[in-house]
Write a structure and sequence with these properties.
This protein has a single domain, classed as TIM Barrel (Alpha-Beta Barrel), CATH 3.20.20.300. It is built from 13 helices and 10 strands.
C-alpha cells in the first residue's frame, strides 16, 4: 500500500501568485508533491521566476519537484521578454529545416534551465487537419503527420539534451476538433484505423525519441470509447498508449479543471478516474490549493476503499521517480541576474526566432 505522503507525487499543482504561499508549504508538509506548473500570474521577472523555482524546490522532502511551464511559442508562451519570444511552432514545419527545430529546442532549454524550469509542455504533436479548430491552429507543427512526427521528435531530443523534460501533447490527437476543450468536450469522429494511421504517427516517433511525458487530450473518441473522454478512458490511456504503442514514460492528464471534464466530473473524482485509467500524473491549474488538497485526499480514500488499486498507484509512482532520476539528479540551479542577462534573449536565440519568423 503506497504511503499517504507518496500520493502527493501524482500531482503537478499550481500557485495563486508570484511566491510560494503558506498554504502550499502546509500541503507539502502533508504530501510529497510532484511539482508545480507556472502561469502568467506566477511570473513578474526572470530573477523572480528563478527565486520562485528555488523556493518550490525547498518544498521537496525525499524527491525533487518538477518546475514546469507551457512554453510552446506563439500564443502559448508564459515567459515573455526579456526571454526570447518565439514564433508559433507552425513556422518550423513550414521551414522544412529540421536543424532549425533542433536549434530552437536547444535555445529554449537553455533559457528554461536558467530560471530553474525542468519540464516544458511541448511540443504539440497534434496534426492541424481542421482549419476550424479553435484551440490548436498554428500551435501544431503542420497538417501532415510525417512532418509533425519529424519536427516533434527533433524538438524533444534537443530539449531533453538540454536538461529539460519534454511533454508531447495531446494524445490521442486534438488536431481535428472544432471546439475548445477548455470550454466543452470536443468530439473526434474518426475510426480506429484512421487514428492509428494518422494521429498516432507523431506519438510513435516521440516514443522512439524517449519523450519523458505524454499529455492526454480531453476529447471524446466514440470509435475508441463512447462513454469516457480520453483522459479518463482505460481503453485509450492504458490500452492504446501504454500497451499498444508501448510507451513507458509518464502519462499526464491535461488540466482537470477544464470544462471538457469539469462539466461532468468533480476534480477529485476525475483525478481518481484518470489514475485508474492509466495516467501517472495530474494537472490542476487554477491555483486553488484547497482543491489540490481535496484531490489528494480523494486519491488516498480511493486507494483505501479499493476503487484505486495500490498496484496502479505504485506503478505511477515508480514512473515518476524514474523520470526524476533521469532529469533531476542534477538540480537546475537558477542563475543570478548577470548570468540571466547573458542567456535570456541571447543573440543566437534571437537569430533562431528571426529565422522562424520568416515562415509566419
Amino acid at each position: 500500500m503506497p504511503q499517504r505522503r507518496e500520493i502527493g507525487e501524482l500531482l503537478i499543482g499550481s500557485l495563486p501568485a508570484v511566491t510560494v504561499p503558506a498554504e502550499a508549504r502546509s500541503l507539502a508538509r502533508e504530501f510529497q508533491l510532484g511539482g508545480v506548473i507556472l502561469f502568467a500570474r506566477n511570473i513578474e521577472a526572470p530573477e523572480q521566476v528563478a527565486e520562485l523555482s528555488h523556493d518550490v524546490q525547498q518544498l521537496a522532502t525525499e524527491q525533487p519537484l518538477w518546475v514546469s511551464v507551457d512554453q510552446e511559442g506563439g500564443r502559448v508562451a508564459r515567459l515573455r521578454k526579456p526571454f526570447t519570444e518565439w514564433p508559433p511552432m507552425a513556422t518550423l514545419g513550414r521551414s522544412g529545416q529540421v536543424a532549425l527545430a533542433e536549434r530552437f529546442g536547444t535555445a529554449l532549454a537553455a533559457e528554461l534551465r536558467a530560471v530553474g524550469i525542468t519540464l516544458d509542455y511541448a511540443p504539440v504533436l497534434d496534426i492541424h487537419t481542421n482549419p476550424k479548430n479553435p484551440i490548436i491552429g498554428d500551435r501544431a507543427l503542420a497538417g501532415d503527420a510525417e512532418v509533425v512526427a519529424t519536427f516533434g521528435a527533433a524538438i524533444i531530443r534537443a530539449l531533453q539534451a538540454g536538461g529539460v523534460a519534454a511533454c508531447g501533447k495531446h494524445f490521442p490527437g486534438h488536431g481535428d476538433t472544432s471546439t475548445d476543450s477548455h470550454l466543452e468536450l470536443p468530439l473526434v469522429e474518426h475510426p480506429p484505423d484512421r487514428i492509428r494511421r494518422v494521429e498516432f504517427v507523431p506519438f510513435r516517433r516521440a516514443i522512439e525519441a524517449e519523450v519523458a511525458f505524454i499529455m492526454t487530450a480531453h476529447v471524446l473518441v466514440p470509435s475508441l470509447d463512447d462513454q469516457r473522454p480520453a483522459t479518463l478512458s482505460s481503453r485509450i490511456v492504458n490500452g492504446m498508449l501504454r500497451e499498444e504503442l508501448g510507451y513507458q514514460g509518464i502519462i499526464l492528464s491535461d488540466d482537470l479543471e477544464m470544462k471538457a471534464i469539469a462539466k461532468s466530473w468533480s476534480v477529485p473524482d476525475a483525478a481518481v478516474e484518470a489514475i485508474a485509467a492509466g495516467c501517472d500524473g495530474l494537472l490542476i491549474c487554477s491555483g486553488d490549493l484547497d482543491l489540490q488538497a481535496q484531490t489528494l485526499e480523494a486519491l488516498v480514500y480511493a486507494v483505501e476503499d479499493g476503487r484505486l488499486s495500490a498496484k496502479r498507484v505504485d506503478d505511477a509512482l515508480l514512473r515518476a521517480r524514474r523520470a526524476k532520476h533521469r532529469f533531476l539528479t542534477t538540480p537546475a540551479m537558477p542563475a543570478g541576474a548577470k548570468a540571466l542577462r547573458q542567456v535570456l534573449g541571447a543573440d543566437e536565440h534571437r537569430r533562431v526566432a528571426d529565422e522562424m519568423a520568416r515562415f509566419l
